[in-house]
Amino acid sequence: MRMCWRRALYTVVLFTSCSPAWADDTDAGRKQFVTSCGTCHIAEKGGGTRQGPNLYTVYGRPAGTLEGFSYSAALKNGGWVWDEAALDRWITDAQAAHPGTVMNYRQANPAKRLLVIQYLKSLAAQN
Ligand code: HEC
Questions:
Q1: Which of 32, 46, 63, 114 is 20–30 Å from 91 (CA)?
Q2: How many structural domains compose the chain?
Q3: Over the stretch 37-93, which tens digit does the pLDDT of each residue have?
Q4: Is residue 5 one of the residues assigned to a domain?
């Protein structure tokens, strides 16, 4: 019985301490995306729009150009491309980055921003 407890404890400790290393970055990115952006955005092929446009093909896409989405004047044919730097500035504080946008979102945590950006980038690689 004593051995069992020790083994169980060992397993729990091992599992807990190792799980970050096992975690799949893409999965962590997907979860962060759903938590941070999922209320307003879908990022799936053919997934449609919510309050915001579908972000499946957003990485590398010129801003404000997804066919069929009704952008604000601030974003419509914005003239920049969604690369890492543009996305980081945008999700840090969308309304400061492009005044007049109707996306009301800020994320102060750089680690969370990076997870989401890397996830969107990984989707672009599948397009
Ligand atoms: C409260 C709703 C809401 C949340 C939360 C939100 N967005 Fe948005 N997003 C929008 C809306 C609305 C637009 C369209 C903005 C406009 O037309 O001014 C938009 C536009 C965008 C665009 C421009 C896409 C294009 O085709 O040019 C990107 C990129 C984007 N969002 C990324 C994100 C990311 C990444 C997150 C999460 C970290 C996020 N958004 C969270 C509502 C939201």
A1: 46
A2: 1
A3: 999 999 999 999 999 999 999 999 999 999 999 999 999 999 999 999 999 999 999
A4: no
Q: How far is the CA of 6 from the centre of ligand 1 (A)?
A: 49
Range of the domain at 39: 24-126
Ligand 1 atom nearest the C-alpha of 87 is 29
Give the helix ranges, DSSP H, for the chain. Answer: 2-22, 25-37, 84-92, 94-97, 110-126
Instruction: Tell whether the torsion through CA atoms of 52, 27, 91 and 117 is positive or negative.
Output: negative
Tell me, in angstroms, the distance from the centre of ligand 1 to residue 19's CA: 31
pTM: 0.86
Secondary structure class of 81 (helix, strand, coil): strand
